[in-house]
Each structure stands twice: as C-alpha cells, then as structure tokens.
Amino acid sequence: MGAWKRFTQKERIAYFSMEIGLKAEIPTYSGGLGVLAGDTIKSAADLKIPMIAVTLLYRKGYFLQHFGHDGWQQESDIEWLPEKHMQLLPTKSLVTIENRDVKIQAWLYNVKSPTGGEVPILFLDTDIPGNDPADRNLTDHLYGGGLELRLKQEIILGIGGARILAALNFAVKKYHMNEGHASLLTLELLNNTRVPIHELHIDNNGYMEQVMKKCVFTTHTPVEAGHDRFPYDLVERIMPPEVPIDLLKEISGPDALNMTLLALKLSHFINGVAKRHGEVSQNLFPGFEIHAITNGIHPFTWCSPFFVNLFDKHLPGWANEPELLVRVDNIPDEEIWDNHCGAKAFFLQYIKEKTGRELNPDVLTIGFARRAATYKRGDLILHDLERLIDIGRGKLQFVFGGKAHPKDDEGKKVIQRIIQKAEEMHGAIEMVYLENYNMEVASYFIPGVDVWLNNPMRPLEASGTSGMKAALNGVPNFSVLDGWWIEGHIEGVTGWSIGPSPAEIDQEIGRAPEDLEDIYQKLENIIIPLYYEDRPGWIKVMKNAIGKNAYYFNTHVMMRRYVTDAYIH
Ligand SMILES: *Cc1c(COP(=O)(O)O)cnc(C)c1O
C-alpha cells in the first residue's frame, strides 16, 4: 500500500503555497509567508483538520547568507538531502511547458502532531532523468531567476500540483491558495469541468461557479505592484496549450496575466491576513468581498524551551489550547523573569559563538530581524546616531538579522549600512548583525531579546508574525501600528506603538521623521526607565504580551476561523 493511500480515505483541504517553512533543515522558505504556511499545517495536524499541502522542493533552497568585509551580502546554495527527510512517491504528473513535456515527481513529508493528527505535504520536483536538462533545475531555487522561471514554477505548483493530487486519488474538498502564486490551479479545475475548456466562456457561469465553490484565496500583498503579473506573449510561449489565451484574458485582465485577479475571480472566499489588511485589500479590489482572518504562529514551534517548561508547569495543555495563556497571571513574576533571563543568556552565548562578540546580559537588548526588504526600514533607528547614543549609551544594545533577496541591491545596502554603523557605534552602543537569519536562528533570537522592534512603512506590513513569536515568549513589541499590531497593541500594557494611530494614517506611505522621533522619545522616556527602574512594571508588560497577545494570535485560533468561515461552506 502506498505511503499516501491512508490519506485518501476522506476529503481534504488542499493547501497550496509557493513556500513552506517547517524547520531550518528543510530550506524551502524565505520568510514570513513560508513560515506561516508551515505553522498553518502544524496547527491543522494538532487540530486533526483533514489537509494535504502542496509546494515545491527547492533542492538548493533559498540561499545561505554571508557578509564580506565591507558588509555586502553574498549568497551561496544550500545543500541538503531531501531523501533524509521525505519519501519519494512513485506516481508522477505531467505538464507542458514551452511545448515540452515536463514530468513532475512528489516527495511526501508527514507533519505529525502529538495529538495523533497528521498532515501530509507533497514537495514537487522536476529533477527527473528523462526531463530536458533545462527543465531539471526548474525547481532548484525559491524566488530565483526572473519572470519566465517564476511562471514555469507557478505552472508546476498550480497545474502540476492539482494533477498530482488527482493522480494520487486525493479527494479534495477545497483548494486553498496561500497567495496568488498557486492560482493557475483554477485553470486546471476549469479544465476538469464537463465543458471542454476551449468552449468555456466567462458567461458560462455555471462552470465558473463549480470551480469557485471549491476555491479559497488568501492574499498577502497590500500593494498593487506586489502582485505577480505575466505579459501574455510570455504566457503564450510558456503555458500549456490546453489553456486558451482568450479565456485567460477575460478572467485575469486584458494586458497581462494577473495571478491575483485570477484567484479573486475564481474563489468563493477571499481574505486578507489582518483586519487592516482586509480593508486595504478591499480598497485594492473593489467588487470583491474581502474578509479578514488574522495570521498566527504555531505555539509549540515558537516557544523557547524555557517558556515551554514554565507553561507546562503552570498551564498544562497550553500548546494545543493556547487560550489557556490568558491565565498567565498565575505564574509568579520571578519565574517569568528567570526564564526570560535563561533564554537571553542562551542567545547571548549563541552570538558569542557565532561572532566572538560579547553582549552584556544586564543591558536592555532590542531585537530586529526579518527579511531585509526596504519597506521594513531596518536601519531607521540608526538615522541619528548622536541622538541614539545620547539616549542609550550603556543602557541599550541591538541585535539585527535578516536576508535581502539576492537581486535586491537596495535591501543589501540597508544591511551594509547597519553593519557599518554598528562598527562606528562600538564602545558606545553595542550592535551585532547576525548572519543567515532562518527558522533556527529565529528560535533563539526572538525569545532572547528584551524588546521586539518593528518599523515598516504603513500599510505595507500585511500582518507580520515575528512579533507574535516575541509575545509568546514574554518579549513586548515596540512597533508601528500596522498589520496584526493594530489588533494586539494596548499602549503601555502589551507593548508600545510607533508613530501615528491607524485612524490618523492617510494614504501617504512612510512618514519616517515622525516615526523616528516617536522611537527615540519612547525609548528615552518610557521604555528605558521602565526596564531599569521598575522591574515589576516591566514584568507586567511581559505577562500581558503572553496573556493578551499570545493567547489569541496563534495558528490554532486562526485555523478554527478558516474552518468555520471558509472551509465548511
Ligand atoms: C517569523 C519569521 C519571519 C516573519 O517575520 P516578520 O517580522 O513577520 O516579517 C521571517 N523569517 C523567519 C525566519 C521567521 O521565523
């Protein structure tokens, strides 16, 4: 009996994602989108939600990050062995790309929960003897190459993925597209309706509706320019012949194949990933009904061993019922503080081993790590070094981390500026930029600092999830009011805001000077004094981060919303 056959007995939610992050050893993710996908799958397994996930097997990963002496990011391929983690299935599927047949194979990985729940994941791969050499490395790199490779990968994910599910006899209740990369699957479903696809017309609503009933779409991108769009001459050259261009133009825009529009048109449930992002998306896509389901994090994955022990002792059952964290006030202050100091000491030791730098465990430590995309403004806090030294000499230290996309020179410049300024600041305020931020580094980093800083340009942070990981470990957020923090923030209670309130925010993106002033002002007058002069007051904020943020902003709560709002309809 095939290893997958026991999963085909009941209908499943087929969850499609261009990236899935389960753990650092399986490097098939780049950042928040992939980690969210992994956390979603883990909570589905814990909650025994019948799901099957589909993604690509990136044999060379995203990339390993190194810094040259000048602080400029360099990349190298990640080497890993899929066969050490997953099992190759014998069944293959076929797609046509550039008029060539491309065979696709699938690797099966089972996410197993202590509750007994299990979610299988199919990692698709074209590195098969018999494929044209040019096609064998199509699935090598996540987000490598240009538009052409991206389209080919999205054909493999959407069309190839839907076909391999059918070939393996999976019964699919809903197709959940995590971002627009997977939306070509809708064309495969249209193809499988009773009418031959070349006779399908957008007015044949019956057939569109059959597909819509099966599809759920989660959008993650709050700006028009961020959505995948493929020119039709490229599409005509690359796409399988069974997809008629005229139909495509009717559905997904006359000028270019807009993957988001395709998913919007063919899904019965559409959502953004935080309340604010739902509203922003509604403005971007008038005419569609956009819901909001706020992202979460998988509680057990993102809790440091120190807090796992603490929660197990005082709130048993918390990992599968994170709502119990609301009772955090039953935990004595000293135990919260001691375990935080444990997580911090562990992280400082890790930094010492990696960089040779010794940070002081008694100094208020601010952490900032995420993809080094320019909108995240990683170097904002360094704009006025004199002011920062005035405020923080001897009282503050910083740890940074995050990768820039290999083609994003602006992102690499941000990293380089931070590294160079860190050298200038040495002796006044210590700053470290850690190499190769990934899920493993994040698991030590986020629980091991005292404050989690986030200052993206509004409204570009659709949700943000690293702040939820911080809250779970009693690390308060100091963040711009965007994404999930609009919902999680109570000023001075769960953490602190940066810049104007959401009500005051207009369309204008940025407002760096105002945000920066707020950062310096709150550090000086509120955060530093609280940390050094009122430890019980500080621990209160730590507890509120757990009891008022982490109990709610997790993927268990989120998955229950997907089930009740999207999956059972
Ligand atoms: C959680 C996580 C992210 C997402 O962080 P944001 O601040 O929400 O962008 C990115 N990278 C890694 C490795 C993570 O674990």
Automatic annotation (TrEMBL):
Q: Which reaction does it catalyse?
A: [(1->4)-alpha-D-glucosyl](n) + phosphate = [(1->4)-alpha-D-glucosyl](n-1) + alpha-D-glucose 1-phosphate
SUPFAM superfamilies per UniProt: UDP-Glycosyltransferase/glycogen phosphorylase
Q: Which GO terms describe its biological process?
A: carbohydrate metabolic process
* Coiled-coil positions: none
Entry annotated with the keyword NADP: no
InterPro entries on file: Agluc_phsphrylas, Glyco_trans_35, Glycogen/Maltodextrin_Phosph, Pyridoxal_P_attach_site
Keywords on record: Carbohydrate metabolism, Glycosyltransferase, Pyridoxal phosphate, Transferase
**Name by which UniProt lists this protein:** glycogen phosphorylase
